[in-house]
Write a structure and sequence with these properties.
alpha+beta; four-stranded antiparallel β-sheet; rod-shaped
Length: about 525
């Protein structure tokens, strides 16, 4: 992943150098300027004072010195002209050393004048690899020796000792300049690496936060919007689109920003379980490459899984809706439809027996009873479909309201209690919890013939547990589960529980009541 941060090399420039590097460079610059001035000014002053450097020789020396300092300035300053001259450093260095050799030949000074050779060597040591630098230093040593011989100075031990000392000093300056420059470059590389590691750490933290946010969302529309927004932020792109593959056709389902034909594009496919489900398209000013694709692939994998899970959730919700409709259809068929049919038959029989008042009255009484039963069942069905307002409310308050409504409607003694911290669930999750409790209470009303029902919610150990217990007649669980409808809405309750990644258990025995337990991890 670190290759992403290296795909566009960004060496440390003058503006990015540390304060220590800037002080070092400034010190090196002024040291070179002062050394060059000493090498060019001191020898003619000494030669003029002792009479060895006058007339034409002095004029030639001063011209060479001015040329030397002028050419050296091309190495010292960052200007367009200096940069243009530095494009051919070999020629520039050769001329500088030639002028230094000319000054030494004229001044015949082998004490101060050799500094003119050493100043350029600092630049050379920071420009070329060590073998080439040593070769140049050797050539300069030969040039210094040739100047010594050409100057006509006597080959005495003192003169040779001075020349040898200057050559050794030249080699020392060369090696010292090389080591110093290497230490600066090494420190800059370490700082560059530290910066890249910090960027990679921030990237991984951002990727981790994005992945956590995506995994906690189940609404497909929200997941798609988050994928687009997070993708643009992570890649620093100008625009991102998310497309899904539906019936062998691509359909853009989310986008952030405006794609521009002038921008570089990058396409990353979204795969889950070996199948392509979508694609991400990035538009950015930076050119797309393999390093960027590799860096964004973990995010694409997380996005693909989040989209896939959201799609499964949508399908599960649709299946649950169909199951709920089927259950309601069966409920209406088994209760309301039959009751209304019986009501119609009783009314018709009563009409036929109008000439026999006693029989007619009996038929109408049965019709009245059927109408009351139908009305009661209709109210129960409507109550099952409705639910208290949920958004932003504490779950225990909503459950208490639900139980109180059940008691007022059925006159069955109902109690509710809550243990643990107060809890506010996401709306989708809370709706499924209330539907399960609704169904359980509806079963108590229709089948249990119970006198008391107790509902309890507990928040502890990172989970929510809700129990619904009654003192009714109970039932054989195995026998009920073998019925076509799954028995007492048990299939519907289990489907709802699975939607919220919970678990549902039911304990019941004939004449021993029923205990329903819903567990939901938090």
């Amino acid at each position: 992943m670190s290759s992403w941060f290296m795909m566009h090399p960004e060496p440390i420039t003058i503006d990015q150098q540390t304060a220590q590097d800037r002080v070092h460079n400034q010190s090196l610059l002024w040291s070179g300027i002062i050394a060059a001035l000493v090498a060019c000014v001191v020898p003619p002053i000494i030669g003029f004072s002792n009479g060895s450097l006058r007339g034409v020789d002095l004029v030639i020396y001063l011209g060479a010195a001015i040329g030397y300092v002028g050419l050296k300035s091309f190495f010292w300053f960052e200007t367009p002209l200096c940069t243009r001259f530095r494009r051919n450093p070999q020629l520039l260095i050769s001329v500088v050393f030639g002028l230094a050799a000319l000054m030494q030949l004229i001044s015949r000074d082998f004490t101060t004048q050799p500094i003119a050779f050493m100043v350029p060597m600092v630049f050379i040591a920071g420009t070329y690899p060590l073998p080439k630098t040593l070769i140049i230093a050797g050539l300069i040593a030969i040039l210094m020796s040739a100047s010594f011989i050409a100057s006509g100075l006597p080959l005495t031990s003192a003169g040779l000792s001075a020349l040898s000392s200057q050559i050794v000093l030249l080699l020392f300056v060369t090696l010292f300049g090389y080591v110093t420059n290497e230490s600066v470059l090494t420190r800059q590389k370490v700082e560059q690496l530290a910066q890249e590691l910090a960027q990679e750490r921030d990237y991984l933290q951002q990727l981790s936060a994005i992945t956590a946010a995506l995994s906690s969302e189940v609404q497909l529309a929200r997941v798609l919007a988050q994928v687009a927004e997070a993708g643009r932020s992570l890649a620093n792109a100008q625009a991102v689109t998310v497309a899904l593959l539906e019936d062998q056709e691509w359909r853009i389902v989310a986008s952030v920003g405006s794609p521009d034909s002038n921008l570089q594009s990058l396409e990353i496919m979204l795969h889950v379980k070996g199948e392509t489900i979508g694609r991400l398209n990035y538009w950015s000013v930076q050119p797309a490459n393999a390093a960027l694709r590799q860096a964004l692939q973990p995010f694409a994998d997380a996005a693909a899984m989040a989209i896939y899970n959201a799609q499964l959730y949508e399908q599960a919700r649709f299946s649950a809706t169909l199951a709920e409709r089927n259950r309601l259809a069966r409920d209406f068929h088994d209760t309301l439809a039959q009751q209304l049919t019986g009501l119609r038959l009783q009314i018709e029989a009563g009409i036929r027996n109008l000439h026999q008042p006693e029989k007619a009255q009996l038929r109408l009484q049965k019709a009245y009873d059927l109408a009351l039963a139908a009305l009661h069942d209709l109210r129960r069905s409507v109550w099952n479909l409705s639910a208290p307002a949920i958004d932003g409310r504490v779950l225990s308050d909503v459950l208490a309201e639900l139980v109180d409504t059940f008691h007022q409607r059925t006159n069955i003694q109902s109690q509710y209690s809550h243990d643990g911290q107060e809890l506010t669930l996401p709306s989708d999750m809370a709706i499924q919890v209330l539907r399960v409790v609704n169904e359980a209470l509806s079963n108590v009303e229709k089948h249990a013939q119970a006198k008391h029902v107790a509902i309890r919610s507990i928040v502890a150990a990172g989970q929510l547990q809700i129990t619904v217990s009654d003192d009714g007649q109970g039932f054989e669980l195995a026998a009920v589960q073998q019925t076509a409808s799954g028995g007492f809405g048990l299939t519907s309750m289990r489907e709802r529980t699975q939607l919220i990644q919970g678990s549902l258990s039911i304990q019941s025995q004939p004449n021993a009541g029923t205990l329903l337990t819903l567990c939901l991890p938090l």
